[in-house]
Amino acid sequence: MTKDKRIRFPSGSYQAFYEDISYRIDPENDTVEMTQRLNPRYSSESREEAVNLANKLGIENIQKRARLFLKLLLLSILLFLFLVIFPAYFSIESEGFLSVGKFLTIVSEIAFLYMFGYYRAAVNYCMDSYCEKCGKHFVFEEFEAPLVKEVSKIDAYTKTLTRYWHCRNCGHKDIKVEPRSINHHHEKKQGNLREDTCEECGKEHSIEEYRNIDVLNYALKKKIRYFKCRNCGYHEIRLNKKFKIV
Questions:
Q1: What mean pLDDT is predicted for residues 35-46?
Q2: From CA 61, how far away is CA 148, in angstroms rounded?
Q3: CA-based Rg of the chain, rounded to a whole angstrom?
């Protein structure tokens, strides 16, 4: 049985914080907004490493190496699948060779995957840090932490990611709000509650679940439930212990 976590909003208060997430209730429009700041996409260490690599090899060579290690990774995966699926092509005397071959392909896959990720991360930073306005590399950067926002309405549930970039050289800004897909559906609110006494004003039979339940992820069924007191205006959000904006 999963224990719910409670986000409490005292009477007259419509904003609360829990695990770095801001919850804001708009009772007039019956809307709940959840926002969270993420870490910047690139750390200072990864930026410095990408710049040093680009100065040493050049951006085109970094791109070529990323493509090369991707091809080597795919080839090693195909070779491993061949050794596993078609062992009949090898004689009994070659079983030792076959085992060594499988081991070496696995080691190669790990190495190629690491190298592809290494060069691909550098390519991504080179592309993201390029300013289209002034045409310079390594000058475009995030000036504010990315913001994830989830908005729950009566008939809709949306999720967006906002990124904030600007150019250190020419001052050009680019703020993008990107929609994010989310696995969501509604469940009907419960009419009868066992715990219907308000914790703030103490009045019995005053707590009600006033809107339908938001269910995120059909497999895990992370539920967000909404309650309020008919007497004093106290609000409460109950959510699954594992619930977190990502």
A1: 92
A2: 35
A3: 27
Tell me, what's the pLDDT at 98? 77
Do the Cβ atoms of 225 and 239 come closer than 8 Å? yes
* Residues ≥6 apart with Cβ < 8 Å to 7: 16, 18, 23, 236, 237, 238, 239
Cα separation of 93 and 95, whole Å? 6
Q: Helix H segments across the chain?
A: 44-57, 59-85, 95-128
Cβ–Cβ under 8 Å, residues 168 and 143: no
Residue appearing with tokens 């007191």:
229
Pair 14, 236: CB distance under 8 Å: no
Write out the two tokens for 190: 């419960």
Distance CA 138, CA 129 (A): 5
CB atoms within 10 A of CB 38: 15
Reported as a single tens digit per residue, the pLDDT across 80-98 is 888 888 776 666 566 777 7
Q: What is the pLDDT of residues 110-132, one digit of tens each?
A: 999 999 999 999 999 999 999 99
